[in-house]
Description:
Layout lengths: L22 H15 L5 H9 L7 H14 L7 H8 L10 H9 L2 H7 L7 H9 L22 E3 L5 H14 L11 E3 L3 H21 L3 H26 L4 H9 L6 H16 L10 H6 L5 E5 L6 H15 L4 E6 L2 H10 L9 E4 L3 H10 L27 E5 H5 L6 H5 L1 H5 L1 E6 L6 H13 L4 E5 L4 H9 L3 E3 L9 H8 L3 E5 L5 H13 L3 E5 L3 H15 L4 E3 L5 H16 L5 E5 L13 E5 L3 H8 L14 E6 L9 H14 L6 H11 L11 H4 L16 E6 L3 H9 L8 E5 L18 E3 L20
Parallel strand pairs: 3-8, 3-9, 4-6, 4-7, 5-6, 7-8, 10-15, 11-13, 11-14, 12-13, 14-15, 16-18
Antiparallel strand pairs: 1-2, 16-17
Amino acid sequence: MSQLGEPIELLAKSPRGPRRLSLERHLVETEAAAVRLFDLSRRWGQAFCRFFRISEAHRERFLLNLRLAALFHDLGKANQDFMVAVTTRGAPAQALRHEHLSALILHLPEVRTWIARGPLVDVEVLTAAVLSHHLQAARSGDHTWGAPRGGREAVRLHLDHPQVKAILHHIAEVAGVGEPPTLGQRSWGLGDETWIAALREGKRAATALDRALRIDSERRSLLLAVKAGVIVADSVASGLHREDHPLEAWIDDVAHAPALTAEDVHTHILAPREKHLAKPGERFTYHRFQDRAAEQGPRALLLAACGAGKTLAAWRWAQEQAKSRPIGRVVFLYPTRGTATEGFRDYVSWAPEDMATLLHGSARYELEMMQENPSEGAKDKQFEHAEDRLFALGVWPRRYFSATVDQFLGFMEHSYQSLCLLPVLADAAVVIDEVHSFDRHMFDVLVSFLRHFDVPVLCMTATLPPSRRNELVQAGLRVYPSEEARVELADLEARERHPRYRIEAVAGAGEDVACAEAIAAYRRGDRVLWVVNQVGRCQRLARALEEALGEPVHCYHSRFTLKDRRERHNKTVAAFQQKERRALAVTTQVCEMSLDLDADVLITELSPVTALVQRFGRAHRRLDRSPEFRARLLWYPPERPEPYSRQDLTASTAFLASLGTENISQHQLAVALEEHALAERDADGSARFLQSGYYAVPGAFRDTDGGAATCILDRDLAQVKALHQKRDRLDPYLISIRRKFTLPDEQRPSWLPRHLGVAPSARYTEEFGFPTDEGAERS
C-alpha cells in the first residue's frame, strides 16, 4: 500500500508464484485478443460477423464496441474487496460483484456523456456486455444487479489509481472521445446517492434496450456478438496468461490456420472410411442418394430410413460446404454421449489424432477406454482430450468434432463453455443428428438457433413428425429427398420399400406372452431385442429371463455407473452386430438412437409413434438376410402409460392398426407416421441468450429431471477420494439415480464435491444396475 492507502499495484488475478497480472495489463491483453481473434480482414472475424448476421456496414461498429467492452469489463476490480480476495486465502465475500460495479461506472453521468461521444459507440450494448460477461447478472432474484453480498453494504474504490487512469486514456484513444473524466468516487455504498442514481439509470436503460431490440434486429445482432465476443476474448487472455502462452502467436496458429478444403475432408475422413467399407477386391461407390445429399446447399434436412447411409451422406455434404464457403471445422452434434462416442468411433477417429476430438461430459474416459479396444479408424492413434487447463479453448485447434449438442448449442442458454466455443461453431459446417429425439425445449432452442444465426447446418433423422418437419422448413431447411427427388433415387427407394417386417400384437396377458415368445425365439437361435419404457421393468424382465434360461441376458439402460454402462453398451452392440449366434437383450429407450443393433425379433411395449419407428429400425437393419426374410415385431400395451401419456399410446395403437401385419417396409412406417404422429405446439422462440438484454444467467438446455441425482456408490468412495485428491476426473464412478434413493447427508463425506450424492451399493449389481421402482422413470 502507498502512504495514502492506495495499493501500489492493482491485480486482475491471484498471483501465481512470482507471476503477477496487473489489472491494466489484463484489460489491454483482452482488447488485444479481441482485435486479433476477430480481425475483420480474416476468416474468423468474417465468419463471426456472418454468424451473428452483422452486415458489412456495421462490422466496424461491432469491433469497436467489442474493444471497448474488453477494456471496461473488469474495471470494477479496482476496489479494496477484490484486492483482498486475490491476495488473501479465505477472504470474505466481496460486497459487490466486480462486473456489477464496472457496469455502474458506465452509468455515472460523466462517464456516459464522455463515452457516448464516439460516433460508433453503442453505450447500452457496451454496458450489457460488461455487466453480463460472467453470466451472473439478473434483473431480480439471484445475482440481482447492484445487490450487496455477504451482509456488507460498502467497499472502498481505487478509481483514481494510475492503472485506471491509463485504461481510461486508452479507451479515449480507441473510441476517439477526448480526455476522460476524473473519477473521484472513493467508495461504493448501498445508500450512496451517486450509486443509487447510477443503478436507477442503468435499470431504466436496460428496459429501454429490451423494447428497442424487439424492432431492431441489426442492433440485437450487435448486442449478441459483443456479449459473446467479450466472453471469448476474456477467456483467451486469461487462459493464455495462466498457461504462459504467447497471445498473438497462439491466436494466429489456432484461429487463423488455413481453411479446410474439400480435399482435406476427403483425405482425412472419407477416403479411409471408403477403404474400410469397400468389399474385398471392389472399389467403394456411393449411392446416388448420398451424392445428391451433398448438393443440397447450406441449410438442409436429411430424412431417410435407418441404415440408408445418412452419416456418410452428411460427410459428403460437409465436404461440399468446404467448396462453397471458407470453413475451418466440421462439427457433428448428437443428442447423447453414447451417440456422440459412436460418431467419433465410426467417422471422426479416421482423422489424424491432432485434428479430431470427442467432446462431451465423459469424453476423456471414453477416449482412454477406446485405446484398449480401438475401432479401425482409431488403431495406432493416441487421441488425447483437450488441454484441460485451457478449458474450451483447448479444443480450438481441432478440425473434426463429434460432440453432444449441448456442448455447442448450450450458448443459447448461457453455457459458458459453449459461449467459448462460438468462434469454432461460426467457422464450421454443422451436422445435427437424431433431431427427432430432442425434447421440447431442445427442439425450441434448435429452431431459434436456425432462425437467428448464419452457419451451414444439416439436420438429419430417420423419422420426423410433420409438425417438427414443418418448423424446420420454416426455419430455412430444405427437405431432402423430396418426393420429386425420389424419382431418380432407385437405390434408396428399393431399400426403403423392401418388405422387412411382420407386425404382431401380443395376445392375452401381454408381458407374460411376450416373455414366452422371447424365450422360444432365443431357443430357435434368433437375436431377440426387447424394449420397455421403464428401467424397473427392464431390470425385472432381464432377471426373469435369466432365471428361465439359466444363462446371462443383456440388460441395458441408463442406471449404471459409467464404466459399467460402457461395458453393457459394448456387449449389447456386439451381440447384435453378428448373426452367427443367438442373442437376447432387454433395454429401454437408450437403444432408439444410432445404436447399430440388428435384431431378428423385436418385442416392444407400446410407445409414441416416433419411438416405435426408431425401435423398429433396430430390426433387420442391414437387409443382409434372404429376400424373403421378415423380422418379427411384437408389441403389447404396458400396464400403465407412464412415462408417456394415454394420448401418445392411443395414437400409436391407431398407427399400428393402419399398417396391417405382413410385409411392412420402412416407407410404410414413414407414411403412417405422417398420419398418426401427434402434432406439437410450434417452437416459442425462447432462449436466454436471445432475450436477456443487459443480463445473463445460465439456464437448462434440456427439459430437466428434478428427481435425478448424480452419485457415487458408497463402495467406490475410497477410489474416488484418491482421484479427487489428484484432481483427476471421476467419470467412471458416476451414476444417475432417483434422488430418493441417495444416502442421508450425514453419510456423505465432506471432501466429496457438492454436486455429488452417495448411493447405497448394496442395491447395485454390474449386471442389472441400480434397481428402481416402476414409476414414471424412463431410460
